[in-house]
Specification:
This protein is of the alpha+beta class. Helix content is 48%, strand content 17%. It folds into 2 domains: 14-102, Alpha-Beta Plaits; 122-183, no CATH class. The longest helix has 27 residues, at 151-177.
Amino acid sequence: MPEPLSVSIAATPAKVVIERRVLPGADAAFKAWADRFVGSAGRAAGHEGTSVLSAANNGRFILLRFASDEDLKAWQGTFEYGYLMREANSVSQAGDVAQVRSGFETWFTLPDLPMPEAPPSTWKMALLTWLCLLPMVIGLSYVLAPLRLRFLAEVALTTAIPVAMLTWVVMPRLTRALYFWLYKGR
């Protein structure tokens, strides 16, 4: 008798956003702390990436991505994490409570605005993403058609270019323009 088919469903990535306000005159000390903090996260199992962003009023956002919520919680449960978070208080003040996100909602946040307690409704994020993605993919298909690229090369370009455009150009502008609609009434 054959063995039952085993299907593995990938864990949902977890993202945490930590807001800190650098104390006056502590910029260099904060940078040294942030380097140690990011290094600690980078050594943790399941760590997938980190960004440190500057914001208004001496604010900093530290965005960390882990393969799963379990990986994030395991790192947050270490002695090193606790020590570094206590040390952060000597060079900065905590902003809003650290927020864990697990989907596209990080596309719908702006570094100069506090992150709302709850993300936009899933249907709003999906609709806006699709409405932005569709014309880009269609346009790129027409632009690339005369080049007669191999299937894989064309698909790679018609997905990579829109993802980059959405991440760094389109979503920040649309989130700012539609902020009230995105977060109203969730």
